[in-house]
Amino acid sequence: MPSDLYGPNVIEVNGAAMLLTTTGGGVAVHLTAAVDEPGSGRGAVLDFNFDSDRNDRAGTLADYDRAALTEPRWSQTTLCGRVWAIMVGGDGGTIGRSGEVAFAPTCRRCLAILDRHFPRPIPDDRLTLVAQLAADAVVDQRGFAEIHDVPGDQLDELRRTVRALIRKRTGTPVRTHVINGVVYVECPAIHHQRRDEGMREAVEAVDAFLKGERAPRRDQDWVTSWSTWGVT
Length: 232
Hints:
This protein has helices spanning about 65-70, 110-115, 125-140, 155-170, 190-195, 195-210, and strands at about 10-15, 15-20, 30-35, 85, 145-150, 175-180, 180-185, 225. It is α+β, with helices and mostly antiparallel strands. The protein contains six helices and eight strands, in the order βββαβααβαββααβ. It folds into two domains: about 10-115, no CATH class; about 125-230, no CATH class.
């Protein structure tokens, strides 16, 4: 390929090329994998897109290599299962006069599926302990818990482990979610059972305020910090 022309707009994922594509009707940038058998897929753009007397995209494709972009090497659908329209513009500029340039996917479903292409992180030595502490806080105390300072590569496994521990002990649904790096664990059934305790604490706090006294300080027994339990 001539050095002054650009090929397909791809990112490399664990050694495999993924084409950045658009469905044409949305704003999300998708990922499309290469086919296993060379020549059995479709091109990043259609051949006639380079034909100046048939399509207004031709003028914007001047910096792209025609043979590379029309090579039938890409799957018919994106990672998330959508039929895609055309490659998203990259280093060579937009594809079409109203096209866009992008260098990373934005489709959440594609990104979620993309995780499967990477090796699963090795669980940290403290994961089991932290998960057990959080499960104890949920089951034995308040029906909810927070886990702070969890490394990003440990989040998914920690959430799975906590949910499994609580479901095994209670047989009830458990929800976990992450906000600003904090893992929140909630078991609605247990929280409902503990609501009287929460109401009592609220009444005591209001009573202290009305008397001009300092409200009773409660231990944050529902909070666990990953960094506290470093294993040496």
